[in-house]
Structure formats: structure tokens, C-alpha cells
Design a protein that fits this description.
Layout: E1 4-10, H1 14-23, E2 31-34, H2 44-47, E3 66-67, E4 80-81, H3 90-93, H4 103-111, H5 119-129, E5 130-132, H6 136-142, E6 157-159, H7 169-178, E7 194-197, H8 212-217, E8 226-229, E9 233-241, E10 247-256, E11 259-271, H9 274-284, E12 287-288, H10 290-294, E13 302-303, E14 315-323, H11 336-349, E15 359-365, H12 373-388, H13 393-402, E16 410-415, E17 431-439, E18 447-449, E19 460-462, H14 469-485, E20 495-500, H15 508-518, E21 520-521, E22 552-554, H16 569-586
Parallel strand pairs: 1-2, 1-11, 2-8, 5-6, 11-22, 12-13
Antiparallel strand pairs: 3-4, 7-15, 9-10, 10-11, 14-17, 14-20, 14-21, 15-16, 16-17, 18-19
Helix pairs in contact: 1-16, 5-16, 12-13, 14-15
């Protein structure tokens, strides 16, 4: 491998592989991806959609093993935050779910200062990244009416509907409809409100995961100008000053096989290490808050207090019921005999439960749909008090969204099986169905910072989980609504009993205790190198270039300044596609 290339991409995850592959489209540009993990995408546990949730049970060798600091407002728990340490990153290890947020959420990025980043300018990149495949039969079965103008048909990432669905899906859908949560015929039109079938990054024929690793990189890996260096963990960005005194990234120091090595960049360095590793690498390289760097004797090259701050995620709780045995669930896979039959069905016909991830449908809803008016007004007032004296402009924006009926505040992900929470486990031989409740715009803001100058140590992650009661109160109201859904006439012959939180958990205080004792995140971190004005805590500008540098850029979820009401993987692909064009235009 050459010791010098034009473009160095640090991190071969969802964003990094997109950027690297697009930059390598120019035959005159040499590109190298530095990735700490290995290329394991051909392994069945990553390829088969139905095995994806197993990766979220406990840390493995392909996980970074991040844990939070003890969370004061979550009963002192230290919570595992899975992140893929493998080629393709979390796109290789996640649960293959795709979605798109509200148009106003993307427009807000521009309003906050990211000129040129809005729903209209991102739409072509959503289309460029995807290959949406749906049959006439699927359209008839789901009742969805997809607008071809909203979907790509020739991009690398396949987007499909589940090949298997449980017979419990329709009664749950009917129950939500009966409570005013209407079906959405087109969830990719900039308005995700309503409920609709799950959409997956799964190949329509092979029933295998579609990710940046096998859909962007793999078809291009034999290009002479695109190189992948695996098992190589970046330790710092190297800099020099040009004749005008501007700070220029000249290369990357990395650790491989116990040795420190260097590779040089002739044009640009792009950090795509994710919302946890990107701020760590910036700080190790001398870019960040002076106090943080000084504490570890790291010389300050660029004073950027926003590095590592503004961490946001989707906070979660869950609701589980036992259902009548005639309603199918993935819990049957706990029976080795049934699991064996499903594996045979998958191998021979690419059908059955292993073709999907266990989800059935999404419902994204505004608090206006599930909160009593008096509760809403109380929460609005609390939110206003929180943001009144805040210098964080993203908080002020989401406070206005809370009062709007247009922007979703909560996701209800319907899972056809037992969704564990805390120490709970399913009983053998029983069938369950669950809601994962996810708060789309938490008010708590966290941070990621180095706690040592050792580049191979993990950073300190403090999401400030449930720091503000507003976040807990919205989830509590969501749990009450979930209970209401499962009590409708549409489900009276389906539900046998409530399992989680349990019928004994009734009062607001009991529900708050449940949320704080068991709640966590849904592993969608963003914001730690926000695309905001520098004075507002920004780290990169609209050109995704790090402030104070000439040729260092960040392209991953860390630049998203304010969260969206969607699972973010499709948005990360679109962001990376747009960023690649920005970098190409500057060449």
C-alpha cells in the first residue's frame, strides 16, 4: 500500500465507505480507508437479517464496547452503547432499519446555520443512495401508495418491505387507527406522522443485509485507486502549517499490530469515525476545548469548545404483552427445532422469519395524539423553562416543535416478539408482541471526551440520560398510550396479559421509576461535531470542514446538529453522498 494518497478516510463505516467510494470514482484520485475493524460482511451473523438483533444482546469482538459513565438519573446504571467495530460500521451490525425524518427537521439544519443543508437539497442524495424495490403485490397488501419521485431506483442500498409479517400486525395496526393514529401511505414524503410497515436495508431476492460495506465498497474494492486498511486504529491527525499559516492535515498516525505507523494525505483527511470516536480523535489531535486538552497535556491547535458536546440520542422504554398462541411471534425461534426449520426455509427459499429483523411497523406520533391537554401544557411550560436561559440553539428549536402537531415526538416501533427491558426474559412456549418507545427529541444533552492521552483507550461517554424530567414524562405518557392501544377492542382477543411494565405499575411515579430503572437509548448518537456556527458550539461549517483547518473534514452522524424523527442510517447515507460532492467540487 502506498505511503501517501490523495484522500484519507478515517473509519470505514456507513458514512466513510460512501465518501471513499464516491471519491474513488475519479480515476485520478487515490483513496485509502483506515478502519479499526475487519471485513466480515460475508459472515452469516451479519448477512442474515433475522440474526441482527442477537448482536444487541451483549458486546462482541466486533463491537467497540462503549459504556456510559454511571447515569445519576437512571439509577446509577452504566449502559452499554453498541457500535460496530467492523467494515461497514453500524451498517453491518444494526437491525437493518431505514427511515426518513420530517422535512422541517432537515430544514432546521439550514436555519441553524448550515447553509445549503435542507430537505430539498438532501432529497436527491436520499434517492442517489437507495434502490427501492416494491412489488405491486406488496403495494396491494400494505395499502401504501409510494411516490416514485421520493425514491431511488438505482442506488447502492436496497430498501425493501419485510418478506415475512406476523398475523398480529393487522390487529395492532387497526388498534392504532381506532385511536386516531392514521396509516401513512407514503412515509418518505417529508411527513413521517402515522403508522406504516417497516422498511429494511435488505436485498429483495437474496434476503441479505445491504450496507455500505457490501453495496458501496465491495463492488469497487478492486479499483486500483481505492484501498482499505483494516485492523488499523487511528491515533491522531498530523498537521503542518502552509505558507499562509493555515493549519493543514498532512496525514494520519495509526496503530496496527502493536506498531504506530503513518500514512500521508496529499489533499484531504476525512474523519468518519462516528459520534463517539470522531470527537475523541479530534481531541487527541489537538482540536477541542482548551480545558479538556490541557488536562491531558495535549497542545491546542484549534480551540473548539463544541467538540464532543451536544450529544443526542433517542431515549427508549418498552411495553410488552403476551398474545394468544395463534398470533405468530419470533419467540418461537427460542425452540431449537423451530429455529432449525426457519434456517432451512431461509436457506432453501429465502423466506420466513430470518428474512426480517423482528419489527413489523412504525408509528411516529405527535404528543398532541397521545397526551391529555393538561399534561401537554405542563410539559410545554417545563420545556420553555429549560431552554429560556440555554445558549444551545438546538434546544430552542425543539421546544417549538413540541407545541407543533406536525413534528413527531415519539416513535412506537411494533416488534413481533418479546422486547427485553432490564432483567426481563420471555417464558418458553409463549408468544409476545412489543412496542419500543423512542423519544425523538430528548432535552438532555450529553458529551464525549477523552479521559486520557492514550489513543487506544475509550473516551468517556456521558449522555446525561433522563437528566430532565421532560424526557421521562413524555415516555411515561407514551407508556400510558401503549397500554391504551393494547386495551382496544381490536386487540381484545389478541392480548392475554401485560408483561412489561406490568399491571402493578400504574401511577405516574411508578411509571417514572420504571423508565429511570430500565430505559436506555436506541443507539442513534449524533451531534458531537455539530454542523453549526462556531459561536453556537459548531465544529464544522456547511462545507463539513473543521473550523480552523484548511483540509480536515468530518462526515458522519456527529455533524447532525439536531435529531430527526427516524432511524438515522438512511440520513447518514444521504449526508455522506452530499458531502462527497462537496469534497469533489473543492478538488
Amino acid at each position: 500500500m502506498a505511503s501517501s494518497v490523495d484522500y484519507l478516510v478515517v473509519g470505514g463505516g456507513s458514512a466513510g465507505m460512501v465518501v471513499a467510494t464516491r471519491l474513488a470514482e475519479s480515476p485520478n484520485a487515490s483513496v485509502c480507508i483506515i478502519e479499526a475493524g475487519e471485513d466480515l460482511i460475508s459472515q452469516p451473523n451479519f448477512l442474515i437479517p433475522g440474526l441482527a438483533p442477537a448482536g444487541l444482546r451483549e458486546p462482541s469482538g466486533t463491537d467497540w464496547k462503549f459504556h456510559t459513565t454511571p447515569q445519576e438519573n437512571a439509577k446509577g446504571r452504566s449502559i452499554w452503547l453498541p457500535r460496530g467495530k467492523v467494515v461497514g460500521g453500524c451498517g453491518t451490525t444494526n437491525i437493518v432499519t431505514l427511515g426518513k425524518g420530517h422535512a422541517e427537521e432537515y430544514d432546521t439544519w439550514e436555519t441553524l446555520g448550515a447553509t445549503g443543508w435542507n430537505y430539498k437539497t438532501l432529497a436527491p442524495y436520499f434517492k442517489k443512495s437507495e434502490n427501492f424495490v416494491i412489488s405491486e403485490e406488496e403495494t396491494a397488501q400494505t395499502g401504501m401508495k409510494f411516490d416514485p419521485e421520493m425514491h431511488g431506483s438505482s442506488g447502492p442500498i436496497y430498501r425493501t418491505l419485510p418478506k415475512w409479517t406476523s398475523n398480529v400486525t393487522k390487529p395492532v395496526s387497526d388498534a392504532m387507527t381506532s385511536l386516531g393514529i392514521v396509516p401513512s401511505a407514503e412515509s418518505y414524503n417529508g411527513n413521517p406522522l402515522g403508522h406504516y410497515p417497516l422498511q429494511l436495508s435488505v436485498h429483495p431476492e437474496h434476503a441479505t443485509r445491504s450496507s455500505s460495506a457490501n453495496s458501496y465498497y465491495a463492488p469497487n474494492k478492486d479499483k486500483g485507486n481505492l484501498n482499505l486498511l483494516t485492523g488499523a486504529e487511528a491515533t491522531r491527525i498530523l498537521f503542518d502549517r502552509d505558507e499562509a499559516g493555515e493549519l493543514m492535515a498532512t496525514g494520519v498516525e495509526y496503530s496496527k499490530d502493536g506498531e504506530l505507523k503513518i500514512i500521508s494525505a496529499k489533499k484531504e483527511v476525512i474523519i468518519s469515525a462516528g459520534a463517539y470516536k470522531t470527537p475523541q480523535l479530534l481531541e487527541l489531535s489537538g482540536i477541542g476545548d482548551n480545558k479538556v486538552l490541557a488536562a491531558h497535556n495535549i497542545p491546542v491547535l484549534v480551540e473548539l469548545p463544541g467538540v464532543g458536546n451536544n450529544l443526542q440520542d433517542h431515549y427508549t422504554s418498552s411495553f410488552v404483552v403476551e398474545v394468544d398462541p395463534k398470533y405468530e411471534s419470533l419467540d418461537s425461534m427460542l425452540d431449537p427445532a423451530q429455529a432449525g426449520l426457519e434456517f432451512m426455509l431461509y436457506q432453501e427459499k429465502k423466506q420466513g422469519k430470518l428474512t426480517t429483523n423482528g419489527g413489523a411497523q412504525f408509528a411516529f406520533i405527535s404528543n398532541h395524539s397521545f397526551m391529555p391537554e393538561e399534561v401537554s401544557q405542563k410539559i410545554y411550560a417545563e420545556a420553555d423553562d429549560l431552554v429560556r436561559d440555554s445558549s444551545n440553539p438546538t434546544l430552542k428549536t425543539q421546544a417549538s416543535w413540541l407545541k407543533s402537531a406536525k413534528i413527531p415526538d415519539l416513535e412506537f416501533a411494533h416488534c413481533v416478539g418479546f422486547l427485553p427491558m432490564g432483567d426481563s426474559k420471555p417464558m418458553p412456549g409463549k408468544n409476545y408482541t412489543s412496542f419500543l418507545l423512542a423519544l425523538t427529541h430528548p432535552y438532555s444533552r450529553g458529551s464525549v471526551h477523552i479521559n486520557t492521552s492514550d489513543p487506544l483507550s475509550l473516551p468517556s461517554l456521558d449522555p446525561h440520560l433522563f437528566e430532565h424530567d421532560v424526557d421521562v414524562e413524555i415516555l411515561v405518557e407514551g407508556l400510558k398510550f401503549a397500554r391504551k392501544v393494547f386495551s382496544t377492542d381490536a386487540l381484545k382477543d389478541v392480548v392475554k396479559e401485560e408483561i412489561i411494565p406490568g399491571p402493578e405499575v400504574q401511577s405516574d411515579e411508578q411509571l417514572k421509576e420504571f423508565v429511570r430503572s430500565t430505559g436506555q437509548t436506541v443507539y442513534h448518537p449524533i451531534g458531537t461535531a455539530s454542523m453549526l456556527p462556531k459561536e453556537d458550539g459548531g465544529v464544522v461549517g456547511p462545507d463539513v470542514r473543521v473550523y480552523g483547518t484548511k483540509n480536515l473534514r468530518v462526515v458522519d452522524a456527529s455533524i447532525i446538529p439536531l435529531h430527526i424523527s427516524a432511524h438515522p442510517n438512511a440520513t447518514v447515507y444521504a449526508v455522506a453522498e452530499k458531502a462527497a460532492d462537496i469534497i469533489k467540487a473543492a478538488a
